[in-house]
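Thread amino acids onto this structure.
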């Protein structure tokens, strides 16, 4: 689905006041789903605050509302 995969880190580009989310909120894609007769294709994203606390989840069917970050965690040698 347009380069968005599970576990991708994304940023919200629009406010979603009904979900308590704001433009710039950071989240992780937790599910990618294909279109069905009952529902369009999209993703479910879990958004977190600066401390990693969950702010909420959002079902996003318009992928223009998010942008994928090219984030790769740094592995630290033990």
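Threaded sequence (78 positions):
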């Amino acid at each position: 689905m347009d380069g968005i995969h599970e576990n991708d880190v994304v940023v919200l580009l629009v406010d979603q006041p009904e979900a308590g989310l704001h433009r710039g909120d950071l989240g992780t894609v937790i599910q990618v789903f294909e279109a069905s007769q009952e529902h369009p294709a999209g993703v479910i994203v879990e958004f977190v605050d600066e401390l990693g606390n969950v702010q909420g989840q959002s079902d996003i069917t318009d992928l223009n509302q998010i942008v994928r970050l090219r984030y790769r965690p740094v592995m630290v040698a033990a």
